[in-house]
Amino acid sequence: MSGINYKFNTWRESGNQAEEWSKKAYKLLSYNNQSDIISGFKIGQVLYYYHVKELQPKEIKKQIGQGMSVHLIKGIIKGFSRTAGQESITAYQIAMDMIKDEQERAVLEKLYNN
Question: How many domains is the chain built from?
Answer without folding.
Answer: 1
